[in-house]
Design a protein that fits this description.
The chain has 227 residues and is an alpha+beta fold. The protein has one domain. The protein has 3 helices and 11 strands, in the order H-E-E-E-E-E-E-H-E-E-E-E-E-H. The strands form 3 sheets. Strands 2-1-3-4-5-6-7 form a 7-stranded antiparallel beta sheet. A two-stranded antiparallel sheet has the order 8-9. A two-stranded parallel ribbon has the order 10-11. Strand 8 and strand 9 form a beta hairpin. It is elongated. The protein starts with 6 loop residues before the first helix and ends in a 9-residue tail after the last helix.
Length: 227
């Protein structure tokens, strides 16, 4: 014979269920609060470390550099700024306070996610002279070769990036070609097995210089230090 719960037992079960629900909601809210507090507490430190890493990378991608200055872009010209969130490039200076080049931040879609890079640009010779990956989630052992493959990194020691000031664009677009087929100084020899990742680097540099190269050349005096 089926046993039927009494009204009192049913009320007790409902009460216990509500107590358990309240407890779960309270625990969830507490966990959420702790996550938010942890993130807010660590975010300044994370941003500081990221800014320090970026500045160290500037010295890697430029010729001998003694000091650097950040520059933002107001839509027309580049202006000095010490606000890291506004910086789009850094100007590097040698011991004599002469401009040694620019370290420009760029990004493009890779295989897994956006790849953020920093590349060195020699204004006078109009060449890319250095390269460093700032942020990447590419596949270990494949896509991450863009960060450490010696032959790939060799591409960025003297990569042609000459600007046609009349057209306000690169004379030859920076492109990544199939591994072993590079023939021109504006081409990047890609990585076998990491085609998308290596192509993203060419796309990032090309887009960056197409947008800013002419402005950099026309207003290059803005990057000189005022004595």
């Amino acid at each position: 014979m089926e046993q039927v719960s009494s009204p009192k037992e049913s009320r007790n079960e409902q009460t216990n269920g509500l107590k358990m629900l309240r407890a779960m909601v309270s625990i969830g809210a507490l966990c959420g609060l702790l996550i938010v507090l942890t993130f807010e507490g660590s975010e300044p430190r994370i941003n500081t470390l990221r800014a320090e890493a970026l500045k160290k990378a500037v010295f890697k991608v430029l010729p001998p550099t003694a000091s650097i200055q950040g520059f933002g872009f107001n839509g027309d010209i580049f202006v000095k700024t010490d606000n890291e969130s506004e910086v789009v490039l850094y100007a590097g200076y040698n011991d004599s306070n002469e401009l040694s080049g620019l370290a420009i931040i760029a990004q493009s879609q890779g295989y897994a996610d956006i790849i953020k890079i920093l590349y060195g640009y020699d204004i006078e010779n109009q060449k890319v002279v250095g390269f460093h990956v700032l942020e990447s989630k590419e596949t270990p052992g494949l896509g991450d070769k863009i960060e450490k493959d010696p032959e790939f990194l060799e591409n960025f020691k003297s990569l042609d990036a000459t600007i046609n000031l009349t057209d306000k664009a690169l004379i030859n677009q920076v492109v990544t070609v199939k591994s072993g087929t590079k023939q021109n100084s504006w081409e990047i020899d890609g990585i076998t097995g990491a085609t998308i990742s290596s192509r993203a680097i060419g796309d990032a540099i090309n887009k960056s210089l197409q947008n800013m190269g002419a402005i950099i050349q026309v207003h290059k005096e803005n990057f000189e230090l005022n004595e």
